[in-house]
UniProtKB/TrEMBL annotation:
Alphabetical GO biological process terms: response to auxin
Positions of the HTH myb-type domain: 9-65, 66-116
Name used for this protein in its record: Myb-related protein 306
This protein's UniProt keywords: DNA-binding, Nucleus, Repeat
Pfam name, any one: Myb_DNA-binding
Family matches, as PROSITE patterns: HTH_MYB, MYB_LIKE
Lineage of origin: Eukaryota, Viridiplantae, Streptophyta, Embryophyta, Tracheophyta
Length: 323
DNA sequence: AAATTGTCCAACCGCACTGCA
DNA sequence: ATGCAGTGCGGTTGGACAATT
């Protein structure tokens, strides 16, 4: 089966999007909502294929996207979710609603993969877990060992998610929750809010084009702007270089955003971080089956009542990830 | 200063999945 | 049951920029 890709059509433009195109696309989505991408080129006159339009919206123009460096918490989450889910970037991204699957995938490929490899080489089999990983990598691991390792990884990841959902480790999630609550609660008209955010994205883009800044400067600028788009003023979740070097922003979030209860938190979290959250962002259709990632994991987690700080205590040395 | 190498990330490609006629 | 159309997803690429020689 199959059909020729839409991008094969003659006359379709490829390559980087211009601010003009972005504005046209955002205006269209503002008016008609996301979806029916097939109609976008014909309605807007954009010489882009529908797929390109969807991608541009999903990965760049969509409101609520956080750009800039990943926080330690995000990094840990990605590592653990990758261990649990594999390269299911969309599924992983559903737990980090501010990040696109593309972003996470890029981050994994450019940073984490290398980092983890380095660490594995670094410990060069001294550590018990390193031994296992290296032997697994060289295919000399027995099936039993492999299964135990796999089970351990799954348990580890389950624990991570459980802790992530727990009251004690609410920091990262309170941040996400706050953002999504804003979207969900309808404190502002959902479309108006969302697309206003998009307009800001465009404004940012135009600004950077105007200035013709070097790319690095531009992205720094983007981070700042996006942070202000996504969060209350004065709470920049994007780690600057200083933040990377140890300043924990989660505390400031904790002080700013209280939690009602574990139940309400988790249910909110479920809504906010499951693919449905993406729907709120205007990215996807609501699909009952898409509840799967978090619901299944939640069920898994609820089966086990063992609890321990995982995310906060996670270290690469102790938790090598196979890939 | 110029050339080379490395890094990052937006965008593309192609397959898979789903819904519909 | 079948084929088509639309969309989602993961892998890959290419260009811009940064760092190094």
């Amino acid at each position: 089966m199959g059909r020729p890709p839409c991008c094969d059509k003659i006359g379709m433009k490829k390559g980087p999007w211009t601010p003009d195109e972005d504005i046209i696309l955002v205006s269209y989505v503002q008016e008609h909502g996301p979806g029916n991408w097939k109609a976008v080129p014909t309605h807007t006159g954009l010489t882009r294929c529908s797929k390109s339009c969807r991608l541009r919206w999903t990965n760049y123009l969509r409101p609520g996207i956080k750009r800039g460096s990943f926080t330690d918490q995000e990094e840990k989450m990605i590592i653990q979710l990758q261990a649990l889910l594999g390269n299911k970037w969309a599924a992983i991204a559903s737990y980090l609603p501010e990040r696109t699957d593309n972003d996470i995938k890029n981050y994994w490929n450019t940073h984490l993969k290398r980092k983890l490899k380095k660490l594995q080489v670094g410990c060069s089999g001294k550590h018990e877990s390193c031994k296992e990983v290296s032997s697994a990598n060289s295919n000399s691991i027995s099936r039993g060992q492999w299964e135990r390792r796999l089970q351990a990884d799954i348990n580890t990841a389950k624990q991570a998610l459980k802790d992530a959902l727990s009251f004690e480790n609410k920091n990262l999630f309170s941040e996400q929750l706050m953002i999504n609550n804003e979207l969900i609660s309808g404190s502002k008209p959902s479309q108006g809010f969302s697309y206003a955010s998009s307009t800001e994205n465009i404004a940012r883009l135009l600004k950077s084009w105007d200035k013709k800044k070097p790319k690095s400067e531009e992205s720094k600028c983007s981070s700042i702007q996006d942070s202000s788009n996504n969060l209350s003023e004065g709470t920049d979740p994007t780690p600057s270089d200083e933040n990377k070097s140890g300043i924990d922003l989660s505390e400031s979030f904790e002080s700013l955003f209280g939690f009602e209860s574990f139940e309400s938190s988790t249910s909110e979290f479920s809504r906010s971080t499951s693919p449905e959250a993406s729907y709120v962002h205007g990215e996807r259709k609501p699909d009952p089956n898409e509840l799967a990632p978090l619901s299944v994991l939640e069920n898994l987690l609820l089966e086990h009542d063992q609890g321990k700080d995982f995310l906060n205590n996670f270290s690469f040395d102790e938790n090598p990830v196979m890939f």
